[in-house]
Amino acid sequence: MAKDRVKAGGAGRRRLLARPSAPGLLLAALFFGLSVTPSMVPRAPELQGVLGGVVAGIGYGLWWAWAATARWMGLGPLWRMPQPLRVALMAGAGLGLGLCLWRAAYWQNSILLAWGLPEGKASAPIRIALIGGAVFLILLLLGRVFAGSVDAWQRRSRRLLPPRVAQGVGLVVALAIFGTLIDGVAFRGLLRALDNGARVADGLIPPEEAPPTSAFVSGGPGSPLDWQEMGRWGRSFVSSGPDAAAIGAFWGGAALEPIRVYVGLNAADTPEARARLAFDEVLRLGGFDRAVLVVAMPTGSGWLDPGGVDTLDYIARGDVATVAVQYSYLPSPVSVVVDPTQGVAEAAALFDIIYRHWVTLPKEARPRLYLHGLSLGAFLSQETVPLLDLYADPIDGALWVGSPYLSEFWQMVQARRVAGSPAWRPRFGNGSLIRTMSQQGAAEQVDASWGPMRFVLLQYGSDPIVFFDWSLAWARPDWLGAERAPDVSPLMRWIPVVTLFQVGMDMAVAVGTLGFGHDYLARDYIPAWVETLAPEGWTPAETARLQAHLAGLVPR
Protein backbone atom coordinates (compact mmCIF):
# COMPACT_ATOMS: atom_id res chain seq x y z
CA MET A 1 0.00 0.00 0.00
CA ALA A 2 2.85 2.37 0.86
CA LYS A 3 4.55 1.50 -2.44
CA ASP A 4 1.35 2.35 -4.28
CA ARG A 5 1.28 5.75 -2.62
CA VAL A 6 4.91 6.38 -3.50
CA LYS A 7 4.27 5.35 -7.09
CA ALA A 8 1.19 7.57 -7.25
CA GLY A 9 3.16 10.50 -5.85
CA GLY A 10 5.94 10.01 -8.37
CA ALA A 11 3.43 9.75 -11.20
CA GLY A 12 1.76 12.95 -10.04
CA ARG A 13 5.05 14.87 -10.07
CA ARG A 14 5.91 13.51 -13.51
CA ARG A 15 2.48 14.58 -14.76
CA LEU A 16 2.95 18.14 -13.50
CA LEU A 17 6.38 18.43 -15.13
CA ALA A 18 5.66 16.47 -18.29
CA ARG A 19 6.24 17.96 -21.72
CA PRO A 20 3.05 19.58 -23.05
CA SER A 21 1.21 17.88 -25.88
CA ALA A 22 2.27 19.25 -29.26
CA PRO A 23 -1.26 19.11 -30.76
CA GLY A 24 -2.61 20.77 -27.62
CA LEU A 25 -0.07 23.58 -27.91
CA LEU A 26 -0.96 24.00 -31.58
CA LEU A 27 -4.63 24.48 -30.72
CA ALA A 28 -3.72 26.75 -27.79
CA ALA A 29 -1.56 28.97 -30.04
CA LEU A 30 -4.34 29.11 -32.62
CA PHE A 31 -6.90 30.22 -30.02
CA PHE A 32 -4.48 32.77 -28.53
CA GLY A 33 -3.76 34.30 -31.92
CA LEU A 34 -7.43 34.50 -32.88
CA SER A 35 -8.29 36.14 -29.54
CA VAL A 36 -6.43 39.35 -30.51
CA THR A 37 -8.64 39.87 -33.57
CA PRO A 38 -11.20 42.72 -33.31
CA SER A 39 -14.15 42.40 -30.98
CA MET A 40 -16.87 44.90 -29.94
CA VAL A 41 -14.86 47.02 -27.49
CA PRO A 42 -11.13 47.97 -27.53
CA ARG A 43 -9.08 46.04 -24.99
CA ALA A 44 -6.00 47.14 -23.07
CA PRO A 45 -2.90 44.91 -23.40
CA GLU A 46 -3.37 43.58 -19.86
CA LEU A 47 -6.92 42.45 -20.52
CA GLN A 48 -5.96 41.10 -23.92
CA GLY A 49 -3.21 39.04 -22.29
CA VAL A 50 -5.62 37.55 -19.76
CA LEU A 51 -8.14 36.79 -22.52
CA GLY A 52 -5.44 35.18 -24.69
CA GLY A 53 -4.24 32.99 -21.83
CA VAL A 54 -7.76 31.87 -20.98
CA VAL A 55 -8.75 30.92 -24.52
CA ALA A 56 -5.36 29.25 -25.03
CA GLY A 57 -6.07 27.15 -21.95
CA ILE A 58 -9.49 26.29 -23.35
CA GLY A 59 -7.94 25.26 -26.66
CA TYR A 60 -5.46 23.00 -24.88
CA GLY A 61 -8.24 21.61 -22.69
CA LEU A 62 -10.37 20.77 -25.73
CA TRP A 63 -7.52 18.70 -27.14
CA TRP A 64 -6.99 16.96 -23.78
CA ALA A 65 -10.70 16.13 -23.54
CA TRP A 66 -10.72 14.76 -27.09
CA ALA A 67 -7.61 12.65 -26.50
CA ALA A 68 -8.95 11.35 -23.16
CA THR A 69 -12.25 10.39 -24.79
CA ALA A 70 -10.37 8.54 -27.54
CA ARG A 71 -8.37 6.60 -24.95
CA TRP A 72 -11.53 5.75 -23.02
CA MET A 73 -13.05 4.38 -26.24
CA GLY A 74 -9.93 2.32 -26.86
CA LEU A 75 -8.91 4.14 -30.02
CA GLY A 76 -5.30 4.60 -28.99
CA PRO A 77 -3.17 7.67 -29.90
CA LEU A 78 -4.96 10.06 -32.20
CA TRP A 79 -1.90 10.69 -34.28
CA ARG A 80 1.77 9.99 -34.41
CA MET A 81 4.24 12.19 -36.22
CA PRO A 82 7.98 12.23 -36.73
CA GLN A 83 9.95 14.65 -34.60
CA PRO A 84 10.94 16.96 -37.51
CA LEU A 85 7.29 17.44 -38.44
CA ARG A 86 6.41 18.11 -34.80
CA VAL A 87 9.12 20.78 -34.60
CA ALA A 88 8.01 22.33 -37.89
CA LEU A 89 4.39 22.55 -36.75
CA MET A 90 5.39 24.10 -33.42
CA ALA A 91 7.56 26.65 -35.22
CA GLY A 92 4.68 27.46 -37.54
CA ALA A 93 2.34 27.93 -34.60
CA GLY A 94 4.82 30.29 -32.94
CA LEU A 95 5.25 32.28 -36.14
CA GLY A 96 1.48 32.55 -36.63
CA LEU A 97 1.00 33.70 -33.03
CA GLY A 98 3.73 36.30 -33.43
CA LEU A 99 2.09 37.60 -36.60
CA CYS A 100 -1.25 37.94 -34.81
CA LEU A 101 0.38 39.82 -31.93
CA TRP A 102 2.08 42.13 -34.42
CA ARG A 103 -1.32 42.86 -36.03
CA ALA A 104 -3.05 43.43 -32.68
CA ALA A 105 -2.62 47.22 -32.77
CA TYR A 106 -4.12 47.44 -36.26
CA TRP A 107 -7.10 45.32 -35.25
CA GLN A 108 -7.75 47.29 -32.08
CA ASN A 109 -7.52 50.57 -33.99
CA SER A 110 -10.20 49.33 -36.39
CA ILE A 111 -12.64 49.49 -33.46
CA LEU A 112 -11.57 53.02 -32.52
CA LEU A 113 -11.98 54.16 -36.13
CA ALA A 114 -15.50 52.69 -36.21
CA TRP A 115 -16.21 54.78 -33.11
CA GLY A 116 -14.82 57.91 -34.76
CA LEU A 117 -12.01 58.11 -32.20
CA PRO A 118 -8.25 58.67 -32.72
CA GLU A 119 -6.08 55.61 -33.17
CA GLY A 120 -4.45 54.26 -30.05
CA LYS A 121 -0.83 53.44 -29.31
CA ALA A 122 0.85 50.17 -30.20
CA SER A 123 -0.72 47.38 -28.16
CA ALA A 124 2.50 46.11 -26.52
CA PRO A 125 2.68 42.58 -28.02
CA ILE A 126 5.42 41.54 -25.60
CA ARG A 127 3.24 42.48 -22.63
CA ILE A 128 0.29 40.58 -24.11
CA ALA A 129 2.47 37.52 -24.71
CA LEU A 130 3.97 37.54 -21.20
CA ILE A 131 0.65 37.98 -19.40
CA GLY A 132 -1.09 35.47 -21.65
CA GLY A 133 1.71 32.96 -21.22
CA ALA A 134 1.56 33.25 -17.43
CA VAL A 135 -2.21 32.77 -17.40
CA PHE A 136 -1.91 29.78 -19.73
CA LEU A 137 0.75 28.13 -17.54
CA ILE A 138 -1.42 28.57 -14.43
CA LEU A 139 -4.39 27.02 -16.19
CA LEU A 140 -2.19 24.21 -17.53
CA LEU A 141 -0.98 23.37 -14.03
CA LEU A 142 -4.53 23.45 -12.66
CA GLY A 143 -5.60 21.18 -15.49
CA ARG A 144 -2.85 18.72 -14.69
CA VAL A 145 -3.82 18.70 -11.03
CA PHE A 146 -7.37 17.90 -12.14
CA ALA A 147 -6.14 15.15 -14.50
CA GLY A 148 -4.07 13.70 -11.66
CA SER A 149 -7.15 13.66 -9.43
CA VAL A 150 -9.09 11.85 -12.16
CA ASP A 151 -6.33 9.21 -12.43
CA ALA A 152 -6.18 8.74 -8.65
CA TRP A 153 -9.90 8.10 -8.34
CA GLN A 154 -9.81 5.83 -11.37
CA ARG A 155 -7.14 3.66 -9.74
CA ARG A 156 -9.21 3.38 -6.56
CA SER A 157 -12.36 2.54 -8.51
CA ARG A 158 -10.65 -0.24 -10.51
CA ARG A 159 -10.50 -2.35 -7.36
CA LEU A 160 -14.29 -2.69 -7.49
CA LEU A 161 -15.37 -1.76 -11.01
CA PRO A 162 -14.56 -2.63 -14.62
CA PRO A 163 -11.84 -0.40 -16.14
CA ARG A 164 -14.08 1.78 -18.33
CA VAL A 165 -16.68 2.23 -15.61
CA ALA A 166 -13.88 3.11 -13.18
CA GLN A 167 -12.61 5.75 -15.59
CA GLY A 168 -16.06 7.36 -15.73
CA VAL A 169 -16.41 7.25 -11.95
CA GLY A 170 -12.99 8.87 -11.53
CA LEU A 171 -13.99 11.73 -13.82
CA VAL A 172 -17.30 12.29 -12.04
CA VAL A 173 -15.71 12.28 -8.57
CA ALA A 174 -12.95 14.68 -9.62
CA LEU A 175 -15.50 17.02 -11.20
CA ALA A 176 -17.55 16.96 -8.00
CA ILE A 177 -14.53 17.77 -5.82
CA PHE A 178 -13.24 20.57 -8.02
CA GLY A 179 -16.75 21.96 -8.49
CA THR A 180 -17.26 22.05 -4.73
CA LEU A 181 -13.93 23.80 -4.19
CA ILE A 182 -14.61 26.39 -6.88
CA ASP A 183 -18.23 27.08 -5.95
CA GLY A 184 -18.05 26.59 -2.21
CA VAL A 185 -14.68 28.16 -1.48
CA ALA A 186 -13.34 30.42 -4.23
CA PHE A 187 -16.58 31.67 -5.80
CA ARG A 188 -18.54 32.19 -2.60
CA GLY A 189 -15.55 33.72 -0.89
CA LEU A 190 -15.29 36.23 -3.73
CA LEU A 191 -19.01 36.98 -3.45
CA ARG A 192 -18.68 37.57 0.29
CA ALA A 193 -15.81 39.98 -0.29
CA LEU A 194 -17.78 41.84 -2.97
CA ASP A 195 -20.84 41.93 -0.74
CA ASN A 196 -18.93 43.39 2.21
CA GLY A 197 -17.19 45.96 0.02
CA ALA A 198 -20.42 47.03 -1.70
CA ARG A 199 -22.25 47.29 1.62
CA VAL A 200 -19.59 49.60 3.04
CA ALA A 201 -19.48 51.73 -0.13
CA ASP A 202 -23.26 52.01 -0.23
CA GLY A 203 -23.42 53.39 3.30
CA LEU A 204 -20.45 55.74 2.99
CA ILE A 205 -21.42 59.42 3.17
CA PRO A 206 -18.68 61.85 2.04
CA PRO A 207 -18.18 64.83 4.37
CA GLU A 208 -19.16 67.32 1.67
CA GLU A 209 -22.46 65.57 0.92
CA ALA A 210 -25.50 67.14 2.59
CA PRO A 211 -29.23 66.34 2.60
CA PRO A 212 -31.26 68.00 -0.16
CA THR A 213 -32.95 71.31 0.52
CA SER A 214 -35.76 70.84 -2.00
CA ALA A 215 -39.14 69.97 -0.53
CA PHE A 216 -39.99 68.00 -3.70
CA VAL A 217 -37.59 65.08 -3.18
CA SER A 218 -37.28 62.22 -0.74
CA GLY A 219 -35.07 63.04 2.22
CA GLY A 220 -35.78 66.75 1.85
CA PRO A 221 -37.63 68.99 4.31
CA GLY A 222 -40.77 67.26 5.59
CA SER A 223 -39.92 63.87 4.11
CA PRO A 224 -40.44 60.85 6.40
CA LEU A 225 -37.72 58.98 4.52
CA ASP A 226 -34.25 59.07 6.04
CA TRP A 227 -31.76 60.49 3.52
CA GLN A 228 -28.92 58.54 5.13
CA GLU A 229 -30.71 55.22 4.48
CA MET A 230 -31.05 55.76 0.73
CA GLY A 231 -27.64 54.41 -0.21
CA ARG A 232 -25.02 56.41 -2.06
CA TRP A 233 -26.79 56.39 -5.43
CA GLY A 234 -30.16 57.18 -3.92
CA ARG A 235 -28.69 60.16 -2.11
CA SER A 236 -27.04 61.28 -5.35
CA PHE A 237 -30.32 60.93 -7.26
CA VAL A 238 -32.40 63.11 -4.92
CA SER A 239 -29.63 65.66 -4.34
CA SER A 240 -28.73 66.32 -7.99
CA GLY A 241 -30.44 67.16 -11.22
CA PRO A 242 -31.86 70.42 -12.57
CA ASP A 243 -34.16 72.51 -10.42
CA ALA A 244 -37.04 74.70 -11.56
CA ALA A 245 -34.74 77.71 -12.00
CA ALA A 246 -32.32 75.86 -14.30
CA ILE A 247 -35.14 74.34 -16.35
CA GLY A 248 -36.96 77.67 -16.59
CA ALA A 249 -33.79 79.45 -17.66
CA PHE A 250 -33.29 76.96 -20.49
CA TRP A 251 -36.85 77.32 -21.75
CA GLY A 252 -37.11 81.05 -21.07
CA GLY A 253 -40.24 80.68 -18.96
CA ALA A 254 -41.73 79.23 -15.80
CA ALA A 255 -41.02 75.60 -14.88
CA LEU A 256 -41.95 73.28 -12.04
CA GLU A 257 -39.63 71.67 -9.52
CA PRO A 258 -39.16 68.01 -10.57
CA ILE A 259 -40.31 65.44 -8.02
CA ARG A 260 -37.85 62.67 -7.22
CA VAL A 261 -38.78 59.78 -4.93
CA TYR A 262 -36.25 57.17 -3.86
CA VAL A 263 -36.54 54.46 -1.20
CA GLY A 264 -33.33 52.78 -0.07
CA LEU A 265 -32.83 49.08 0.55
CA ASN A 266 -32.54 49.63 4.31
CA ALA A 267 -35.79 51.57 4.61
CA ALA A 268 -37.90 48.39 5.05
CA ASP A 269 -37.43 44.63 5.14
CA THR A 270 -39.58 43.49 2.19
CA PRO A 271 -40.14 44.64 -1.42
CA GLU A 272 -43.80 45.26 -0.68
CA ALA A 273 -43.00 47.44 2.33
CA ARG A 274 -40.47 49.50 0.35
CA ALA A 275 -42.95 49.89 -2.50
CA ARG A 276 -45.57 51.14 -0.03
CA LEU A 277 -43.12 53.72 1.32
CA ALA A 278 -42.41 54.91 -2.22
CA PHE A 279 -46.12 55.11 -3.05
CA ASP A 280 -46.88 57.10 0.09
CA GLU A 281 -44.07 59.50 -0.75
CA VAL A 282 -45.37 59.98 -4.31
CA LEU A 283 -48.79 60.80 -2.85
CA ARG A 284 -47.32 63.20 -0.28
CA LEU A 285 -45.29 65.11 -2.86
CA GLY A 286 -48.14 65.31 -5.39
CA GLY A 287 -46.61 63.02 -7.98
CA PHE A 288 -50.01 61.93 -9.29
CA ASP A 289 -50.82 65.58 -10.02
CA ARG A 290 -47.92 65.99 -12.44
CA ALA A 291 -48.19 65.65 -16.22
CA VAL A 292 -45.73 62.74 -16.33
CA LEU A 293 -45.10 59.98 -13.79
CA VAL A 294 -42.15 57.63 -14.38
CA VAL A 295 -41.53 54.37 -12.53
CA ALA A 296 -37.77 53.85 -12.87
CA MET A 297 -35.80 50.74 -11.96
CA PRO A 298 -32.16 51.38 -11.04
CA THR A 299 -29.21 49.13 -11.83
CA GLY A 300 -28.08 46.53 -9.32
CA SER A 301 -26.14 49.01 -7.20
CA GLY A 302 -29.12 51.37 -7.04
CA TRP A 303 -27.77 53.79 -9.65
CA LEU A 304 -29.98 55.83 -11.95
CA ASP A 305 -28.15 57.32 -14.93
CA PRO A 306 -28.21 61.14 -14.66
CA GLY A 307 -28.14 61.25 -18.45
CA GLY A 308 -31.55 59.60 -18.44
CA VAL A 309 -33.34 61.31 -15.54
CA ASP A 310 -31.96 64.82 -16.04
CA THR A 311 -32.94 64.90 -19.71
CA LEU A 312 -36.41 63.73 -18.71
CA ASP A 313 -36.76 66.66 -16.30
CA TYR A 314 -35.80 69.16 -19.00
CA ILE A 315 -38.06 67.70 -21.69
CA ALA A 316 -41.04 67.60 -19.31
CA ARG A 317 -40.23 71.19 -18.17
CA GLY A 318 -40.15 69.96 -14.58
CA ASP A 319 -43.75 68.73 -14.70
CA VAL A 320 -42.64 65.19 -13.87
CA ALA A 321 -42.33 62.82 -10.93
CA THR A 322 -39.81 59.95 -10.98
CA VAL A 323 -40.03 57.15 -8.41
CA ALA A 324 -37.46 54.40 -7.81
CA VAL A 325 -36.71 51.77 -5.17
CA GLN A 326 -33.35 50.17 -4.41
CA TYR A 327 -33.32 46.36 -4.42
CA SER A 328 -29.56 45.72 -4.05
CA TYR A 329 -26.25 47.48 -3.46
CA LEU A 330 -24.19 45.06 -5.58
CA PRO A 331 -23.10 45.69 -9.18
CA SER A 332 -25.63 44.36 -11.66
CA PRO A 333 -23.70 41.22 -12.74
CA VAL A 334 -23.12 40.22 -9.12
CA SER A 335 -26.70 41.08 -8.15
CA VAL A 336 -28.01 38.71 -10.82
CA VAL A 337 -25.81 35.87 -9.52
CA VAL A 338 -26.53 36.40 -5.81
CA ASP A 339 -30.33 36.77 -5.97
CA PRO A 340 -31.94 37.43 -9.36
CA THR A 341 -35.45 37.20 -7.90
CA GLN A 342 -34.99 40.13 -5.50
CA GLY A 343 -35.05 42.76 -8.23
CA VAL A 344 -38.01 41.16 -10.00
CA ALA A 345 -40.01 41.16 -6.76
CA GLU A 346 -39.15 44.82 -6.13
CA ALA A 347 -40.04 45.91 -9.66
CA ALA A 348 -43.34 44.03 -9.55
CA ALA A 349 -44.32 45.42 -6.15
CA LEU A 350 -43.55 49.02 -7.14
CA PHE A 351 -45.33 48.88 -10.50
CA ASP A 352 -48.34 47.10 -9.02
CA ILE A 353 -49.01 49.62 -6.26
CA ILE A 354 -48.50 52.62 -8.54
CA TYR A 355 -50.61 51.20 -11.37
CA ARG A 356 -53.49 50.07 -9.12
CA HIS A 357 -53.87 53.62 -7.81
CA TRP A 358 -53.34 55.22 -11.22
CA VAL A 359 -56.24 53.34 -12.85
CA THR A 360 -58.62 54.66 -10.18
CA LEU A 361 -57.95 58.28 -11.16
CA PRO A 362 -60.05 60.09 -13.78
CA LYS A 363 -58.36 59.68 -17.16
CA GLU A 364 -58.49 63.39 -17.90
CA ALA A 365 -56.81 64.27 -14.58
CA ARG A 366 -54.19 61.60 -14.08
CA PRO A 367 -50.54 61.79 -15.23
CA ARG A 368 -49.18 59.97 -18.22
CA LEU A 369 -47.51 56.84 -16.81
CA TYR A 370 -44.19 55.54 -18.14
CA LEU A 371 -41.60 52.94 -17.21
CA HIS A 372 -37.85 53.41 -17.45
CA GLY A 373 -34.72 51.40 -16.82
CA LEU A 374 -31.10 51.00 -17.89
CA SER A 375 -29.32 47.65 -18.20
CA LEU A 376 -30.48 45.36 -15.38
CA GLY A 377 -33.09 47.99 -14.53
CA ALA A 378 -34.50 47.69 -18.07
CA PHE A 379 -34.64 43.91 -17.75
CA LEU A 380 -36.47 44.06 -14.41
CA SER A 381 -38.91 46.67 -15.71
CA GLN A 382 -39.67 44.54 -18.77
CA GLU A 383 -40.12 41.42 -16.65
CA THR A 384 -42.86 43.04 -14.60
CA VAL A 385 -45.01 44.55 -17.37
CA PRO A 386 -48.27 42.56 -17.50
CA LEU A 387 -49.01 43.37 -21.14
CA LEU A 388 -52.24 41.40 -21.31
CA ASP A 389 -53.55 43.11 -18.17
CA LEU A 390 -52.78 46.56 -19.61
CA TYR A 391 -55.10 46.36 -22.61
CA ALA A 392 -58.12 47.49 -20.58
CA ASP A 393 -56.30 50.57 -19.32
CA PRO A 394 -52.84 50.84 -20.93
CA ILE A 395 -49.95 52.84 -19.56
CA ASP A 396 -48.45 55.42 -21.90
CA GLY A 397 -45.16 53.69 -22.62
CA ALA A 398 -41.60 52.95 -21.59
CA LEU A 399 -38.01 53.84 -22.41
CA TRP A 400 -35.69 50.89 -21.89
CA VAL A 401 -31.99 51.45 -22.46
CA GLY A 402 -29.27 48.86 -22.96
CA SER A 403 -31.58 45.88 -22.45
CA PRO A 404 -29.25 43.04 -21.40
CA TYR A 405 -29.03 39.78 -23.31
CA LEU A 406 -30.96 37.93 -20.55
CA SER A 407 -34.09 39.98 -21.30
CA GLU A 408 -36.73 37.77 -22.92
CA PHE A 409 -38.52 40.88 -24.15
CA TRP A 410 -35.44 42.08 -26.05
CA GLN A 411 -34.78 38.57 -27.37
CA MET A 412 -38.36 38.43 -28.65
CA VAL A 413 -38.00 41.76 -30.46
CA GLN A 414 -34.83 40.51 -32.15
CA ALA A 415 -36.15 37.07 -33.01
CA ARG A 416 -39.44 38.35 -34.45
CA ARG A 417 -38.08 41.38 -36.22
CA VAL A 418 -39.25 42.33 -39.68
CA ALA A 419 -37.32 40.44 -42.34
CA GLY A 420 -34.46 42.51 -43.67
CA SER A 421 -34.12 44.75 -40.61
CA PRO A 422 -30.77 44.50 -38.81
CA ALA A 423 -30.49 42.66 -35.49
CA TRP A 424 -28.77 45.67 -33.89
CA ARG A 425 -31.73 47.97 -34.70
CA PRO A 426 -34.66 45.65 -35.40
CA ARG A 427 -38.09 46.69 -36.65
CA PHE A 428 -40.91 44.99 -34.79
CA GLY A 429 -44.29 44.58 -36.44
CA ASN A 430 -45.68 47.76 -37.95
CA GLY A 431 -44.00 49.99 -35.34
CA SER A 432 -47.21 50.92 -33.54
CA LEU A 433 -46.16 49.34 -30.20
CA ILE A 434 -42.36 48.88 -30.18
CA ARG A 435 -39.59 50.86 -31.86
CA THR A 436 -35.86 50.60 -31.45
CA MET A 437 -33.19 53.27 -31.59
CA SER A 438 -29.42 53.58 -31.54
CA GLN A 439 -27.10 56.56 -31.43
CA GLN A 440 -27.79 56.81 -35.18
CA GLY A 441 -31.48 57.49 -34.52
CA ALA A 442 -34.74 55.57 -34.85
CA ALA A 443 -35.58 52.58 -36.99
CA GLU A 444 -36.58 53.49 -40.51
CA GLN A 445 -39.64 52.43 -42.51
CA VAL A 446 -42.19 52.42 -39.72
CA ASP A 447 -45.49 51.37 -41.29
CA ALA A 448 -47.98 52.74 -38.76
CA SER A 449 -48.47 55.54 -36.26
CA TRP A 450 -48.01 54.94 -32.59
CA GLY A 451 -50.80 53.17 -30.73
CA PRO A 452 -51.89 53.93 -27.14
CA MET A 453 -48.56 52.64 -25.74
CA ARG A 454 -45.05 53.61 -26.87
CA PHE A 455 -42.29 51.14 -26.00
CA VAL A 456 -38.90 52.51 -27.09
CA LEU A 457 -35.70 50.48 -26.81
CA LEU A 458 -32.40 52.32 -27.08
CA GLN A 459 -29.23 50.28 -27.56
CA TYR A 460 -25.82 50.87 -29.06
CA GLY A 461 -24.71 48.44 -31.75
CA SER A 462 -21.38 47.99 -29.95
CA ASP A 463 -22.94 47.10 -26.57
CA PRO A 464 -21.75 43.57 -25.65
CA ILE A 465 -24.12 43.40 -22.66
CA VAL A 466 -27.01 43.72 -25.12
CA PHE A 467 -25.69 41.35 -27.80
CA PHE A 468 -23.90 38.67 -25.79
CA ASP A 469 -25.34 35.17 -26.17
CA TRP A 470 -24.06 31.71 -25.25
CA SER A 471 -24.68 30.62 -28.82
CA LEU A 472 -21.69 32.75 -29.85
CA ALA A 473 -19.65 29.62 -29.07
CA TRP A 474 -21.16 27.69 -32.00
CA ALA A 475 -23.15 30.07 -34.24
CA ARG A 476 -22.48 33.37 -36.00
CA PRO A 477 -24.80 36.08 -34.64
CA ASP A 478 -27.02 38.06 -37.00
CA TRP A 479 -25.50 41.35 -35.80
CA LEU A 480 -22.19 40.27 -37.36
CA GLY A 481 -23.71 39.95 -40.80
CA ALA A 482 -23.12 42.12 -43.83
CA GLU A 483 -25.29 44.96 -42.46
CA ARG A 484 -23.67 45.61 -39.12
CA ALA A 485 -23.84 48.61 -36.82
CA PRO A 486 -21.54 51.51 -37.80
CA ASP A 487 -19.80 51.32 -34.41
CA VAL A 488 -18.77 47.66 -34.86
CA SER A 489 -15.41 47.08 -36.54
CA PRO A 490 -15.74 45.92 -40.16
CA LEU A 491 -12.79 43.59 -39.44
CA MET A 492 -14.55 41.69 -36.65
CA ARG A 493 -15.24 38.07 -37.59
CA TRP A 494 -17.08 35.30 -35.81
CA ILE A 495 -14.74 32.58 -34.53
CA PRO A 496 -16.19 29.49 -32.79
CA VAL A 497 -15.61 29.52 -29.02
CA VAL A 498 -13.19 32.47 -29.24
CA THR A 499 -15.89 35.06 -30.01
CA LEU A 500 -17.86 33.94 -26.97
CA PHE A 501 -14.93 34.78 -24.71
CA GLN A 502 -14.08 37.96 -26.60
CA VAL A 503 -17.57 39.38 -26.14
CA GLY A 504 -17.63 38.07 -22.56
CA MET A 505 -14.46 40.05 -21.84
CA ASP A 506 -15.97 43.05 -23.64
CA MET A 507 -18.83 43.06 -21.13
CA ALA A 508 -16.35 43.68 -18.33
CA VAL A 509 -14.98 46.83 -20.02
CA ALA A 510 -18.11 48.10 -21.80
CA VAL A 511 -18.75 50.91 -19.28
CA GLY A 512 -16.63 54.04 -19.50
CA THR A 513 -16.51 54.05 -23.28
CA LEU A 514 -18.37 57.40 -23.60
CA GLY A 515 -21.13 56.94 -26.14
CA PHE A 516 -20.25 53.41 -27.20
CA GLY A 517 -20.44 49.97 -25.63
CA HIS A 518 -22.64 50.13 -22.53
CA ASP A 519 -22.01 53.81 -21.74
CA TYR A 520 -25.13 55.72 -22.81
CA LEU A 521 -24.87 59.49 -23.11
CA ALA A 522 -27.42 62.21 -22.41
CA ARG A 523 -27.33 63.29 -26.07
CA ASP A 524 -28.81 59.91 -27.07
CA TYR A 525 -31.37 59.80 -24.27
CA ILE A 526 -32.91 63.04 -25.55
CA PRO A 527 -34.27 61.79 -28.92
CA ALA A 528 -35.31 58.53 -27.22
CA TRP A 529 -37.32 60.39 -24.57
CA VAL A 530 -38.82 62.63 -27.24
CA GLU A 531 -39.96 59.53 -29.16
CA THR A 532 -41.40 58.09 -25.94
CA LEU A 533 -43.09 61.19 -24.50
CA ALA A 534 -44.09 62.92 -27.75
CA PRO A 535 -43.92 66.44 -26.18
CA GLU A 536 -46.25 68.80 -27.96
CA GLY A 537 -44.62 70.98 -30.59
CA TRP A 538 -41.16 69.50 -30.13
CA THR A 539 -38.76 70.11 -33.02
CA PRO A 540 -35.36 68.70 -34.02
CA ALA A 541 -33.92 72.14 -33.29
CA GLU A 542 -34.95 71.79 -29.64
CA THR A 543 -33.29 68.37 -29.49
CA ALA A 544 -30.04 69.88 -30.78
CA ARG A 545 -30.29 72.83 -28.38
CA LEU A 546 -30.83 70.59 -25.35
CA GLN A 547 -27.99 68.30 -26.43
CA ALA A 548 -25.66 71.29 -26.62
CA HIS A 549 -26.88 72.59 -23.26
CA LEU A 550 -26.37 69.31 -21.44
CA ALA A 551 -22.98 68.53 -22.99
CA GLY A 552 -20.57 68.50 -20.07
CA LEU A 553 -23.28 69.26 -17.49
CA VAL A 554 -24.55 65.74 -16.80
CA PRO A 555 -22.02 63.79 -14.68
CA ARG A 556 -21.02 60.36 -15.88
Report on the structure:
α4 packs across α5 and α9 runs parallel beside α12. The longest helix is centred in the N-terminal third of the chain and has 41 residues. The protein is built from 19 helices and 8 strands. It has 2 domains: 156 residues, no CATH class; 280 residues, no CATH class. A hairpin with a 2-residue loop joins β6 and β7. The relative contact order is 0.09. The N terminus is likely disordered. The chain is α/β, with parallel strands linked by helices and 556 residues long. It is 52% helix and 7% strand. The protein is elongated. It has an 8-stranded mixed sheet, with helices on both faces.
Q: Strand order across the biggest sheet?
A: 1-3-2-4-5-8-6-7
Count of separate structural domains: 2
So what's the overall shape?
A: elongated
Strands, total number: 8
Question: DSSP helix count?
Answer: 19
* Low-confidence runs of at least 5 consecutive residues: 1-9
Strand content: 5-15%
Helicity level: 40-55%
Q: What structural class should be given to the helix and strand makeup?
A: alpha/beta
List keywords for this structure.
single chain; 556 residues; alpha/beta; 2 domains; 8 strands; 7% strand; elongated; disordered N terminus
In short:
With about 550 residues, this protein is an alpha/beta fold. It is about 50% helix and about 5% strand. It has helices at about 1-15, 20-35, 45-70, 85-115, 125-155, 165-205, 230-240, 245-250, 270-285, 305-315, 330-340, 340-360, 375-385, 385-390, 410-415, 465, 500-510, 520-535, 540-550; strands at about 260-265, 290-295, 320-325, 370-375, 395-400, 435-440, 440, 455-460.
